[in-house]
Automatic annotation (TrEMBL):
Pfam families, sorted: EF-hand_1 (PF00036), EF-hand_7 (PF13499)
Organism, as annotated: Dicentrarchus labrax (European seabass)
Similarity comment: family membership: Belongs to the calbindin family.
Domain of life: Eukaryota
Molecular-function GO term, any one: calcium ion binding
Gene: calb2a
Protein name per its UniProtKB record: Calbindin 2a
Entry keyword Repeat: yes
Biological process (GO), any one: regulation of presynaptic cytosolic calcium ion concentration
Residue ranges of domain EF-hand in the record: 16-51, 63-98, 107-142, 180-215
GO CC field: cytosol; dendrite; nucleus; terminal bouton
Keywords associated with the record: Calcium, Metal-binding, Repeat
Length: 256
C-alpha cells in the first residue's frame, strides 16, 4: 500500500503566490514528468477536497470517483486524463499567472529568444542569477505586468527553483527544453544534417523535434511544437540553424 504523502502545501489558502503555486505543483507532480496523473491525481483531488471542505474524504467511496470525474470534466481542458500546469492554474486561486506567462515565452515566443540572446552575451546557453532579474524584468514589461522589487526577487528565485535543474545558480537554456547528452546531440544532428554542411533548415528541425518528442515519450502538441520550433529558428542565420545554435538549446552541456 502506498504511503500517505506529506502534508501538501498551501491548498487551504484563499490565494497562492507564484512561489506557493510551484510548491504545490512540485508536491503533486511527484515523478517530475510535467503532469499530475494516475495516483498523483487521486492524491491531489483528495487533498484539495479536504482543504476546501475540511472533512475526511474516502477514495474508495463511489461518490469520490464521481466527484473526481466531474472535476476532470471541468478542468481537464484537453481531455487527456491528467492535469498540466496551465490547467492547475485554473483550479487554484493564484494571485497572477506569472509562471504561465514565463512558460508561454519559453515555449512559443521568438521574443523570448531575442531577450535571451541579449543577456546570454557570450552565447554559452546560460544566464547568471544576477542577470536573470534583468531578463525577467524585460519579459514582464513585454507582457505588461506590474511588479515591484520584492515581487521580482520572488519571481527570480521561483524560476531558478523551477528550471535550474543542476543547482548551479544559473538558468540554462537546455534546462527548459528537451535535454540531450553531447553524444545524443551529435548523433541526432548528424542524422538530420544529411549533406554534412553543418546546419539544418526549418523543415528538418520540425522532423528532429517530432523525433525527440517521441523518444522522450511526450505527446506532440502541434501548437506547442510549432511555437518551440519558431523560437529555436529565431536563432538561425537566414533560415540556417547551425550546430552551435541548436546545441545550446537541446544539449545538457556545451560541446567542448
Amino acid at each position: 500500500m502506498a504511503n500517505k504523502p506529506q502534508q501538501p502545501p498551501h491548498l487551504h489558502l484563499a490565494e497562492v503566490t507564484a512561489s506557493q503555486f510551484l510548491d504545490i505543483w512540485k508536491h503533486f507532480d511527484a515523478d517530475g514528468n510535467g503532469y499530475i496523473e494516475g495516483k498523483e491525481l487521486e492524491n491531489f483531488f483528495r487533498e484539495l477536497e479536504m482543504a476546501r471542505r475540511g472533512a475526511g474524504v474516502d477514495p474508495s467511496n463511489p461518490t469520490f470517483r464521481e466527484k473526481m470525474k466531474e472535476f476532470m470534466q471541468k478542468f481537464d481542458k484537453n481531455k487527456d486524463g491528467r492535469i498540466e500546469m496551465s490547467e492547475l492554474a485554473q483550479i487554484l486561486p493564484t494571485e497572477e499567472n506569472f509562471l504561465l506567462c514565463f512558460r508561454q515565452f519559453v515555449s512559443s515566443s521568438a521574443e523570448f529568444m531575442a531577450a535571451w540572446r541579449r543577456y546570454d552575451t557570450d552565447r554559452s546557453g546560460y544566464i547568471e542569477a544576477n542577470e536573470l532579474k534583468g531578463f525577467l524584468s524585460d519579459l514582464l514589461e513585454k507582457a505588461n505586468r506590474h511588479y515591484d522589487d520584492q515581487k521580482l526577487q520572488e519571481y527570480t528565485q521561483t524560476i531558478l527553483r523551477m528550471f535550474d535543474l543542476n543547482g548551479d545558480g544559473k538558468l540554462g537554456l537546455s534546462e527548459m527544453g528537451v535535454k540531450l547528452t553531447t553524444e545524443q546531440f551529435n548523433a541526432i544532428f548528424t542524422y538530420y544534417d544529411k549533406d554534412g554542411n553543418g546546419y539544418i533548415d526549418e523543415q528538418e528541425l520540425d522532423a528532429l523535434l517530432r523525433d525527440l518528442y517521441q523518444k522522450n515519450k511526450k505527446e506532440v502538441d502541434l501548437k506547442n511544437l510549432s511555437g518551440y520550433k519558431q523560437s529555436i529558428m529565431s536563432l538561425s542565420d537566414g533560415g540556417k540553424l547551425y550546430r552551435g545554435e541548436l546545441e545550446i538549446v537541446l544539449c545538457r552541456e556545451p560541446i567542448a
